[in-house]
Amino acid sequence: MDEKNTSNIKKEAENVKDESKKVNINFFKKLKISIFDFDKYYIIAGESFKRTTLYLTEIIIIFSLIIALIFLFKIDGIFTDYNNYKASNDVSTYTYKVAEGYELTSKQLDILTNAGLGSIFVYLWIFTFIVYFITGLINVLAISVLGIITEKFIGLPLKYTAVYAISVSALTLPTILQLIYIVVNFYTGFTMKYFQVMYLLITYVYILAAMLMLKSNLIKRKTEVTKKIEKNGKEDTENS
Description:
By secondary structure, the protein is mainly alpha-helical. The protein has helices spanning 3-18, 27-36, 41-45, 49-73, 75-86, 106-114, 117-153, 160-170, 172-188, 195-239; strands at residues 95-99, 102-105.
């Protein structure tokens, strides 16, 4: 094989390797890929740690905004319930259940009562964002460990940044389902005992499906490169 042919093969390999980095994905396109397009997860896998964390931050901002707005719409009813209770009871142990696992104490309600609606909204948004962002990062780090084990098991050579990116995108649908669940629970009191298990299971299914697709694409591309090598080799032999 001559030097020119070798150079072309290396160039082709680099094009395959850097393909994902040449694609600029906006938030909504990445959202669509994360939920529906396993075959395009190779684009997500090529994103940097910074861009992936930015995507996670954007999701949590929207998530916490919706939660804060929902709470704000119901704030009058919460204050009425609290004031009625306070009129004839000791409020030192009072709690108001906002949703499953989320309660407000009497001290928190006193702070909210003395604040305007604008301040309440900002407080709720910031508080909800901090809580869910930290929770999201913990979930991503835990799930990425499973991702590392999976990619080693199926023989897929990925850097941690790629596993991290895939893990964040795999959390997209479960996060949307979690938002829906919180809204339903907030208004109806409906609870699902094993929701968190389902949340993690869906995430892992996404990771596994994405990695298997990446593995399939890698094998396919290697086959294509091999065919090009053989074709170029035959052409060189015929021309010599």
